[in-house]
Design brief:
mainly beta, six-stranded antiparallel beta barrel, about 35% strand, about 525 residues, single chain
Length: about 525
């Protein structure tokens, strides 16, 4: 669960309708002088910064890759201006408030310069430089300055990382979750360039000094805000929040701040998101992706074809939506990545989630969500090819018809808690996903044979067509007595007797039934009945 860090935060982007690049102004607010530094940012960091759309800052990190904040745009396409050149961009992925953009394939230009990334885990107390296109410093007020106007110029300032806010939720409406680098505006007289962000600074790069080199460690997301005596947000850069107000929840009672507390800025931390960034960069390839799981409990959205390791940490996973235009994308979990665990799954029309030979646990599944997941499976099944839109498995598609993508919930699949379901590569017939097709699965199948069902695979509906039919029985019998790796397994004699008795009672001819201890294959000659019949004695 996320931890509440601040009662109120301020968006760093101006409000605009979803689907358009948000308008931005300038610049980072600093303590000394006029409150803004419009000179060229020091240490070369300005050579990595450009503008997405009409002003949102973005930082190049590769010859074709740029990072910015997720919330600055509701589009999957955009134009990025960098070093006086324009680039056609497409959104590759977002993770919390970090957006990874790449130059569109139709645009052959590349970025001449790009920032090195901080790849450590100890940003606290490191000096930082920050850039942005936010508003200027305005008139003085108690404890700071109001936000002023903007002129579209890049500005910069310095500070120090005061804390790493791990697994943190900032604010109430809207909520920002994830890992953040916090830097405080504490009126340090020895640093006239001490900086805090203002509206318009979203997406600007935060560079930390590591071993003598400034490396990109975050992108600006949000800043603390307080309320005036009327309960309205105070649009200001404050080195002291003393005397202003806060609320525990929207519309709640105003509480005056009685401690001398500085305002803080928060940048989405990149070091905890390097595996997804690395996939888009190409540093992590499909061949080695299984060794680089993506651990995140916030929002992950995929907008292009990619292969990743397991996704863990209970993330909300979206493929192809909600930004516009909706794109066709396939997320593949690399083979042998192990079990993923997510809290929600949304797949846009025309998009796919390829689990290969892995399993995925999905939490927080209610009946409506279950219906959606089963529809993804039915679409992905695609007549047994397992290559349709929705939930698919390229491994099952190449298995020769022995494997599919199974589905089961708590009470059926061992180890699941109430509200969880599991999907995954499995032998046809393995209703409970325990890795063996045996008498337990047979009992489920015959209980539902000939009936309409809504629970999919766990009810014996291996084709996800809503009916347990002869097609499902055929798939089951072909794997009876097998384990997940395809090898035979010794079953109790009672399992074989039950299958044989059922076949005899229902005029089902089973051909080439070997001895139970050496069984390798059962083939079904024909099924004359789809449901259990009662016979006169």
């Amino acid at each position: 669960m996320h931890t509440k860090k601040q009662a109120k935060i301020q968006w760093l982007a101006f409000c605009a309708s979803l689907g358009a690049i948000l308008p931005h102004a300038s610049a980072i607010v600093t303590l000394g002088g006029t409150g803004n530094n419009f000179t060229t940012p020091p240490n070369g960091i300005g050579s990595f910064e450009g503008q997405l759309g009409t002003g949102a800052a973005g930082t190049t990190i590769g010859s074709r890759i740029m990072l910015t904040a997720t919330h600055v745009s509701g589009n999957t396409t955009g134009v990025f201006t960098f070093n006086n050149l324009t680039y056609n961009m497409r959104l590759a992925a977002t993770i919390d408030d970090l957006a990874v953009w790449q130059i569109a394939p139709t645009d052959t230009k590349t970025f001449a310069t790009y920032a090195p990334l901080y790849t450590g885990s100890s940003e606290t107390n490191l000096p930082l430089e920050v850039e942005g296109y936010g508003v200027q410093r305005g008139p003085a007020i108690t404890g700071g300055w109001l936000w002023g106007a903007g002129n579209g110029q890049l500005s910069w300032g310095t500070n120090t990382v005061s804390a790493i806010d791990t697994d943190t939720q900032l604010g109430e409406t809207p909520n920002f979750g994830g890992d953040f680098l916090q830097y405080d505006f504490n009126n340090n007289p020895s640093n006239p360039n001490q900086a805090i962000t203002a509206v318009g600074d979203s997406g600007g790069g935060v560079f930390v000094l590591n071993n003598g080199v400034y490396q990109l460690a975050g992108v600006n997301s949000v800043v603390d805000t307080v309320l005036n005596s009327a309960g309205n947000p105070l649009q200001a850069a404050l080195y002291d929040q003393f005397g202003y107000y806060t609320q525990n929840f929207p519309g709640g009672a105003l509480t005056q701040i009685t401690t001398h507390t500085p305002e803080s800025s928060y940048a989405t931390r990149i070091s905890s998101k390097l595996n997804l960034v690395g996939v888009v960069q190409g540093n992590i390839t499909p061949a080695n992706a299984a060794a680089f799981p993506i651990n995140n409990d916030g929002d992950i959205s995929i907008y292009t074809n990619m292969t990743t390791g397991a996704i863990t940490g209970d993330a909300l996973l979206t493929i192809g939506a909600p930004f516009t235009p909706v794109v066709s994308a396939t997320l593949q979990i690399a083979a042998n990545s192990g079990t993923s665990e997510i809290s929600a799954l949304t797949i846009a029309p025309g998009c796919s989630f390829d689990v290969t030979n892995n399993h995925v646990i999905i939490d927080d599944v209610d009946p409506t969500v279950e219906t959606s997941i089963l529809s993804y499976l039915a679409s992905g099944y695609n007549g047994g090819k397992w290559n349709g839109p929705g939930i698919t498995s390229s491994t099952a598609a190449s298995s020769g018809g022995s494997y599919g993508v199974g589905y089961g919930g708590a009470g059926v699949v061992s180890g699941l808690s109430w509200g969880q379901v599991e999907i995954g590569y499995a032998l046809y017939g393995d209703t409970n996903l325990d890795g063996v097709v045996n008498g337990d699965d047979f009992n489920v199948l015959i209980a539902n044979l000939g009936r309409a069902v809504t629970a999919g695979w766990q009810a014996g509906d291996f084709t996800y067509d809503g009916v347990v039919s002869s097609a499902d029985f055929t798939l089951f019998v072909s794997n009876f007595g097998k384990q997940a790796n395809g090898a035979s397994v010794v079953l109790p004699a009672s399992d074989w007797l039950a299958l044989d008795a059922y076949a005899a009672a229902n005029h089902i001819a089973l051909i080439n039934i070997p001895e139970p201890a050496t069984v390798t294959l059962l083939s079904l000659a024909g099924i004359t009945l789809l449901a259990r019949r009662r016979h006169n004695i």
